[in-house]
Structures are given as structure tokens and as C-alpha cells.
Amino acid sequence: MNLRESLLAARAAARRLALLSGPERSALLSDFAAGLSQPENQRTVLAANAEDMARAREEEAAGRLSSALVKRLSLDAKKIATTVDGISQLARMPELVGRTLTHRILDHGLILKRVSSPLGVLGVVFEARPDALVQITSLAWKSGNAVALKGGREAAASNRALAALAQQVLAKHDIDPRAIVLLEDRAEVESLLGMDDLVEMIIARGSSPFIRHVRGHSRIPVMAHADGICHVYLHASADADMAARILVDAKCSYPAACNAVETLLWDAGAGAALDACVKALSEQKVELRGCAETCKRHPQMKAASEADWDTEYGDLVLSIRQVPGIAEALAHIEEHGSSHTDAIVAQDAEAAGRFLAEVDSACVFHNASTRFSDGYRFGLGAEVGISTDKLHARGPVGVEGLCTYRWLLHGRGQCTTDYSPEGRHYIHKDLPSDG
Amino acid sequence: MNLRESLLAARAAARRLALLSGPERSALLSDFAAGLSQPENQRTVLAANAEDMARAREEEAAGRLSSALVKRLSLDAKKIATTVDGISQLARMPELVGRTLTHRILDHGLILKRVSSPLGVLGVVFEARPDALVQITSLAWKSGNAVALKGGREAAASNRALAALAQQVLAKHDIDPRAIVLLEDRAEVESLLGMDDLVEMIIARGSSPFIRHVRGHSRIPVMAHADGICHVYLHASADADMAARILVDAKCSYPAACNAVETLLWDAGAGAALDACVKALSEQKVELRGCAETCKRHPQMKAASEADWDTEYGDLVLSIRQVPGIAEALAHIEEHGSSHTDAIVAQDAEAAGRFLAEVDSACVFHNASTRFSDGYRFGLGAEVGISTDKLHARGPVGVEGLCTYRWLLHGRGQCTTDYSPEGRHYIHKDLPSDG
Question: Per residue in A349-368, pLDDT tens?
Fold first, then answer.
């Protein structure tokens, strides 16, 4: 396949996707959900996944793949059902393309609207997780965009089967199936990065070095879903029970997730809360690594090294550091955090207010687990990733983050030279918008 | 000066700017306006500008600078008064930092807010226009950001005087004056492009080759203010008088502006409207260049070459092309436009609706001059530029485009594992936000 030709076709198909009515778009998504629910299609997809899994298990046995990766790679009827449920939810969500974001009277008969619009063609590079292909595709359709997709190579057969299914659904709706372009290898990703005339945004999920490579080799704007070095800070006013519950959820409910906590900071006055956390986490077999002050209080604890403060374990390991107060907690998070998700546990409203005002991360929480940082939990329907960038979209990215906007102006022949201190004046009155 | 150290200081100062209260921020802006209004300060600024102008006039005489550039470079009491007025307007505008953009109940006692937040340090490269330094600085303050500024070299003395004045205002408010870093040469711009750990966004105003260079040499996200190849399309239903008035405004009121029209497309059925435009534009001494069909109707007209359709004249020149209908007009705009601003003149609502739905440009107008594409006219207070990018901000960019957001979650100790099909359910109910 010639990538440039495919992307040109994708661009044309994107225009069709952009102009679908709300009901047409919902029908497209519902048909995708229905297609994935069909037993025959499921057999095809699961057979492809079995191929991928057989290869992956060999690599795992040879020590070349982690068991966490193999777990994410595997598909089964239950995972597919969850995915189908997600598509159906998106189908039912209100139409977001064409929504009026600003509605302003500039003058009598001169009405300005800012309306949400699709971007065009998105390039998405993601890990070996076949269900991610389905989520990304359905978010792209809901936002009226075409996609060029490159999943982890371990999922190649599963991705081909799922993309083929999605393309059948497009064809049934008289949309060019090349609205989905499946990239097969790294060389195609490199070519994609050079096509800034055809691709509007790259969504890069993966390691920091990979994302630096993408940013350094493309003029296309990049939205990165990168490291999650998340912190929980126990203020002196923290409730000990609450702290322990939040820490267990934040560390143990899914340690490989980017929104899992990696470092616990505790105020010198929060010793009781620390003790409760250490007890609860130890019961969950979490390996704890403490600073000198922490180890003084818990002498059985392993000592942390400087590198621990900058490490995303993605595993049942947690580093723990004592800080003299909130200022030092803020400074630690600024120095070592990845601007993903950070939380304070505190009964003191003033301390919580300061933490929420000053931590410059995508998500900043008070008395809640870092694992709430998630598109579904935030009510976005689904997410294409959790952006650690500040521009365009930040934190969990749903349909809105895949849209841009256009300014539409309706007039009656007005000219700018009609307006001046001596002539006509602008009214600039806002009317209610959709959101 | 060591640029990295200056930017580190700017970053620290940005945190102070971010945490200013609304009244403190307004006072800062008002003091900047007051400072610029003071006769002694004006004399200093005008003397610096006279230095720049003397050099520029020599270069103009030698044919190395255009008279349009020299005109933009010059400052006088009237231009300063307009600039002061702009700052005062920004000071009076509602506080935009910390605005609640989303307000959602996830569950009882689990409240999610998305609040607007400053970006941090912005890098802005702009043309030789000293009033732009003032506008950009005041927009940065209103949005709580620090700035590294590099203006056109012809304005070096003016920019130094204006930046010094702004820094005095910062110092008076106990903010590190290094919240403004003035770059002196191109080498410093190149260094800036490499500091993706300190600079959150580059705003690049200038030529396409310059912007390609910036995008190709930086991992920092770039917001470009580039070419404006704007179109007006006369539909068969166009009112001839209105068409002529709009064309004269769009071409003649400021031909060097990026929102000036460069190409007129006319439907075969819009001959009378074309004739009215040709007559009115000829009276304004606009050089017209027509396609074969246009020249057949107006035999005195100069013939356009293929290159004309891709040219931003920035001058009293207009290319004119006949198109068989709206589909071909849309295709021409997609092929030759720069996604800046395009307008249709039509009495037919259906044609206008199709044009507004399908033209993928930042600004799409119906029966209004392309020159309305402007931050002040749109009611944004001022603009840092007109973005021709699709990501983050599009079209005229005011304070909102210089902000990002953070997700703040207030809980009572909730954990994600409390929620499941069998356990607690999310409510996901939206409350009114600040808009």
C-alpha cells in the first residue's frame, strides 16, 4: 500500500464523516457495536487474537515480553462485551460535532458562532492492546475524524481483524473504508510523521524516549500520553483510615496503570496516617522504599535511592518520603512529578485549597484516589488516552479533545469600515451556547 | 544574559502571575496602561522608536525595507493611545484564570471541576511592530503567563524601551521583572526552541518558511500565525451591491492584513455581482487578474497565471476566477486556501449553509467582509495573532487561547474500587459552569 495515497483517501473520507448527521453517526457506532457482538465476527477476532497470543507466550517464556503486556494483549468474550458497551455509550452520547461553543451578537444582524468541528486525519500510535483499537476508532467516528492507526506489533493479527470489521461497517454506511488506515510497521510510522500536509494530530501513547523521538521528528502537533509519576501527599490533618483506603486503591487496584500512585509524601505531623498506609500496603504485599526519616519510623523498610523519586514502577512498589510541610511537598511534586495526577489527603480545607491551586498537573485531587483520573470515570464516555501535554487537551481525552472549532459569522453585507469611534459600535453580547 | 537562567526565573515568576487574584491582575494591567500614558515614559519610548525609524528609513531608501514595514514600525501618540485603550479593556474584562469550564457531580460528595489555568512560559516571535509587544505582554498577564519575546530586529530599540517599562510595572507589583524575557537575536530564538522543558508554547508570527523552520527545529508545540490566502465566493444568488461593498472592504481597507481577500471566485450565474465588484475595485485602483472566462467578460483585465491562485499579495491586487458552481468553489478553496478566512456572498440560505458547513477554515463568513476576522472585532479584547493551526486555538487568539485547564476533584475518601456494576454507580450530572 502507498501510505500517501491511503492518507489522501482517508482525508476525503474524513470529510464524509464530518458531515454525518447526529443520527447517522449514532447508527454507524451502533452498527460497529452490533458487528463486534455477532458470534461469527467474534470467532474471527478471537482466532486472530489466539495467533498473537501464541507468539506472545513464546516470547514471554523466553523472557522477552512481560506478563503485564501479555495480559493486556489477550481478548476474551468479557473484554469484548465491555468494549461493545463502551461503543454503545458513545453512540447514545449527545452529538458533539457542530455544537455551538460561543454565540455572540457582534451587531444587529451580525452573529458570530464558534462551532466544534472535526480535525481531519488523526495518527494514533498505541501499545499492544486490541481493545484500544476499538476505543480509538469509535472516538474518532464520534468526533468525525479519520484515523491512521499503529498498534503494538504483538497485536498485529488482532488489530487486522478488528480494523477489517470496522471497515465493513464503514462500507455498509457508504463511507470509504480507508477512513481507517492500519499501519503495519515502524517504517510507516516514520513516513506518517513526515506527512504534516495530511495528518492534523499525532496521538502518541508510549515511553518517554519514544515520545521525544516523535516530537523531534515531526512538524505535526503531538498529543502525548506519557509517564504517570503520581503522588499522594498526606497532610498533617489527614484522616488515617481514609489515607490507607486511598493508598491501597491508588497503588493496588491496577499497578500498571499510568494513574497509579508511585510516591507517597507525608507531613512530619501525619505519622499516624503514614502508619495506617504502611500497614495496609504491606498487607497487600506492596514493596515499600522509604527515605531516611521514613525508615527511622519503620526500621524494617527498604531504603529508597534518589532514582526512586523519578521512577514509574508500574508495579506493586511505592516510594515514601517525609516532607517538612506542604511547601516542600509542592516542590517535590514539581521537581519529580510528570504533571499527570497528584492528590492530597487532608481534613484541613486551607491546605487542600493551596494544593489544588498550586500543583500544575493535569489532574489534582483532594481526598480521592489518583485512579479516578480516567475518561470513563470523568464522564467523557471513553478516552483516547490521558494527555500529559498542556496544549489542546489535558488529562483524560475524550471526544472533545479530538475536535477543533471554526468561527462562523452570519451578516447582511456588513463591512469593517462601517465601525469606528464615530460610526457604528460593536455590541458584543453573548447569547446562551450549547456548552 | 544566560537564556536558560532567565527562563528559569520566568518560570518562577509565571507561578506568581498565575496566583494573582482578579483585582491584583487588573491592577497590574491598569498600571501598565498608566505607565504608557505618562508623558515622560512616552518621550522615552518615542525617542527609542525614532532611533529605529532613522535606521529603517535608510534601509527603505536603499530598497531593503518595504514602506509597509516602516509604517508598521512607527509609533506615535495616537498609536500609543490605542494600545493603552486595549490594555484598559483587558483590565476590565472578567477574570479568565480559574474559571470553571466543567462542573460535574461524579457521585455524592465527589465533585469534578475543570478550571482554566495559565500555561507557564510562552515564547513569542513576531514582526517589527512595537505595539504588538504591548498587546502580547498584556494578553500574557491577563492569562497569567510569563513570556519570552523576540520582535523584528528593526524594532529593537522600541522593544527594549517598552519591555523596560513593563518590567518596572512588574517590579512595582513585587513580581520578578524576568516574567518578561526579551530575546535580542536569532541565535537566542534557536536556543529557545530547544528548551522544551521550560517553554510551553511557541507563538510564531511570520512567513511560511520561518514557521516550517520553527516546527522542524523544536519539540515545543507551535501555534502559527501564517499565510492568509482568503477567498470571497459570489454565489449566483449574490446581491450585486453587497458584493461590491464587501469586496472593497475586504481588499482595500488594509491590503497588508492577513484577513484581506486575495481571490474572488464567481459563479457563472453571478455575472452582475462580478461586474459590480470589478467596477468598484477598479475605482479603488486595485489591479485585477482574471482567469480566461473572467477576461472574456472583462477584456481589459490582465490574465492571471496559475501562481496567482496561491499568492498572498498583501497589496492592492486581486485574482478573479469563474467557477461552474459551489462544489468547484469549495474545491478551489480547499486546494489553494490557507484555512484562514473565507466568505460567501449569497441570498440563497441553502448555498450559504453548505459553504459554512464544508469550508474547513478557521473563519467562514456569510455576507460579511473577511476583515471581521480579528480578536477585537470578535469581542476577545485583543489578539496575540490569528492561528492558522487547528489545534488548541484557531482563528483570532485572545486570552482563552493562552490558557490550558486542570481537572480538580474534591472527594471524601472515595476509591475507584467502590464503583462497579454490582457496587456504587457514577451519577455524572453536570452543574452550571462559568461558560
Answer: 999 999 999 999 999 999 99
Domain edges within chain A: 3-226+388-403, 230-372
Å between A54 CA and nearest CA of chain B:
32
Contact between chains at B428 and A379 (C-beta distance less than 8 A): yes
Q: How confident is the model over A220-278, as pLDDT tens digits?
A: 999 988 789 999 999 999 999 999 999 999 999 999 899 999 999 999 999 999 999 99
- Go through chain A and tell me how many residues it has: 435
Q: Has domain A3-226+388-403 been given CATH number 3.40.605.10?
A: yes
Contact A112 B249 (CB under 8 A): no
Contacts of B110 in chain A (CB under 8 A): 368, 372
Instruction: Say yes or no to pLDDT of B239 above 80.
Output: yes
Alpha-carbon span A55 to A47, nearest angstrom: 13
Q: What is the mean pLDDT of residues A391-420?
A: 95
In chain B, which among 375-414 make CB contacts under 8 A with chain A? Answer: 377-379, 389-392, 394-396, 404-414
Higher pLDDT, A379 or A295: A295
Q: Does B200 touch chain A (CB under 8 A)?
A: yes
CATH number (3.40.50.620, 3.40.309.10, 3.40.1010.20, 3.40.50.300) of A230-372 reads 3.40.309.10
C-alpha to C-alpha distance for A337 and A261, rounded to whole angstroms: 11
Residue A297 contacts B where some CB pair is shorter than 8 Å: no
**Nearest residue to A322 via CA among A246, A269, A250:** A269
Alpha-carbon gap, residue A354 to A349, rounded angstroms: 9
d(CA B153, CA A407): 33
Place of cell 484522616: A239
Of B249, B415, B435, the CB nearest to A416: B249
Instruction: Give the minimum alpha-carbon distance from B61 to chain A in angstroms, rounded to a whole number.
Output: 32
Q: For residues A199 and B216, which has the higher predicted lDDT (pLDDT)?
A: A199
Contacts with A347 from chain B: Cβ below 8 Å: none
Q: What is the mean pLDDT of residues A105-115?
A: 96
CA distance linking residue A340 with residue B162, whole number of Å? 38
CA B104 to chain centroid, in Å, comes to: 32
Q: B308 — phi, psi (to 5°)?
A: -60, -35
pLDDT of residue B120: 97
- The neighbouring-strand residues paired with B404 are B117
Place of cell 472578567: B94
- With cut-offs at 50, 70 and 90, classify the pLDDT of residue B1: low
For all residues of chain A together, what is the average pLDDT? Answer: 95
Q: Is A169 left (phi over 0), alpha (psi -120 to 50) or beta?
A: alpha
Dump strand ranges (E) for B153-301: 180-182, 201-205, 222-225, 230-234, 261-267, 287-290
CB within 8 Å: A416 and B392: no
Smallest Cα distance from B51 to chain A, Å: 32
Task: Look at residues B214, B195, B189, B196 and name the one whose alpha carbon lies nearest to residue B204.
Answer: B214
Interface predicted TM-score (ipTM) of this complex, two decimals: 0.94
For A173, list phi and psi in degrees, rounded to 5: -95, 15
User: Number of helices and strands (H, E) in chain B?
Assistant: 14, 18
Q: What is the pLDDT of residue B208?
A: 83
Nine cell digits for residue A107: 451587531
Residues of A within 8 A of B116 (CB-CB) are none
Q: Which CATH architecture has domain B3-205+399-403?
A: 3-Layer(aba) Sandwich (3.40)
Residue A148's identity, in one-letter code, is A
The shortest CB-CB distance from A365 to any of B15, B395, B409 is to B409
Average pLDDT score, chain B: 95
Measured from the Cβ of residue B335, the count of other Cβ atoms closer than 10 Å reads 9
pTM over 0.90: yes
Give me A221's grid cell: 502537533
Determine the average pLDDT of the residues in B219-238: 93
